[in-house]
Structure to design on (324 residues):
């Protein structure tokens, strides 16, 4: 038995009670079985997008930017850049995919309150189907890590995912935030190592950027308080309080441009124009995030503030492309 047709990325589709049995209709109205290569490939691509699209500004985009920064630093060729970006695109799509699929499979109850658009909440696939995809993704991720010479970072991230999503790490603010610190270091380290070994310059950027930004990572929890409270999560806003968390985030984002200027931009010795451009852009984004966090305080506003924070993260790594 199949369900009534629904829209699958603009294409009419339907699925059976078995979430692997997906049918896509061709332009003539004929249903192509999920075993049809087009039908299956399209559904899996669309499904992966639905799992990860809101997390791309905090993961996939920054990774690509830092890969480009590493290439710029080592003065590689255009072909080197193309190959490195292709590797980075594939690796970090799977990086965020395995996290999001397992995290959402474990958090359906919370997502019904906080994020009702997610694929498991709307019934696009079942929870067992998500777990099957997670383990396949973990295997693919391991192979990619070996092929691209970043296996140690892949294994470390897999350990973080298992601890965070399956061992209760997401339930406590300190383990949740630590997972984001380690995950950020893993992400940028692998993004650089795809291009070249990580030297002193690479490590300085990785540590300064990740330690600074993750000091404000509890911003993401301000928008999710109802669901976190309902499911027993002890995030920083619930433990420390909403206003202390806002003040912490505001303070970090206010001083971030100064730290970046002193610790990252000036040591790279860029041209005066490049230095001013990076300083002004990062300061503008950082201070906008700081002001929004204090002034705009609804769940919807907090979500937009968090997205501004992720775009600020991207700006910081774009600056690396400019100054290195």
């Amino acid at each position: 038995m199949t369900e009534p047709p629904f829209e699958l990325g603009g294409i009419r589709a339907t699925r059976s009670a078995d979430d692997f049995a997906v049918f896509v209709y061709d332009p003539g109205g004929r249903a192509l079985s999920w075993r049809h290569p087009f039908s299956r490939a399209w559904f899996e691509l669309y499904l992966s997008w639905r799992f990860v699209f809101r997390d791309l500004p905090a993961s996939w985009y920054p990774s690509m930017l830092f890969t480009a920064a590493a290439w710029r630093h080592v003065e590689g060729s255009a072909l080197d850049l193309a190959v490195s970006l292709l590797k980075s695109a594939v690796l970090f799509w799977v990086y965020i995919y395995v996290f999001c699929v397992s995290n959402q499979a474990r958090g359906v109850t919370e997502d019904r309150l906080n994020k009702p658009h997610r694929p498991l909440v709307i019934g696009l696939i079942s929870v067992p189907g998500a777990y099957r995809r997670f383990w396949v993704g973990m295997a693919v991720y391991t192979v990619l890590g070996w092929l691209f010479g970043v296996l140690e970072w892949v294994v470390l991230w897999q350990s973080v995912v298992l601890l965070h999503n399956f061992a209760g790490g997401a339930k406590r603010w300190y383990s949740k935030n630590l997972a984001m610190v380690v995950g950020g270091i893993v992400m940028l380290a692998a993004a650089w190592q795809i291009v070249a070994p990580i030297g002193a310059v690479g490590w300085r950027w990785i540590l300064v950027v990740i330690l600074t930004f993750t000091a404000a990572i509890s911003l993401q929890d301000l928008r999710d308080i109802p669901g976190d409270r309902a499911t027993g999560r002890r995030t920083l806003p619930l433990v420390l309080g909403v206003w202390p968390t806002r003040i912490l985030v505001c303070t970090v984002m206010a001083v971030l441009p100064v730290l970046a200027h002193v610790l990252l931009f000036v040591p790279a010795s860029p041209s005066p124009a490049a230095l001013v451009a990076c300083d002004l852009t990062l300061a503008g984004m950082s201070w906008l995030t700081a002001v929004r966090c204090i002034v705009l305080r609804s769940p919807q506003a907090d979500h937009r503030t968090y997205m501004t924070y992720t775009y600020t993260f991207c700006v910081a790594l774009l600056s690396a492309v400019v100054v290195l």
The first helix runs from residue 37 to 52. The chain has two domains: 51-198, 201-324. The mean pLDDT is 89. DSSP finds 14 helices and four strands in the chain.
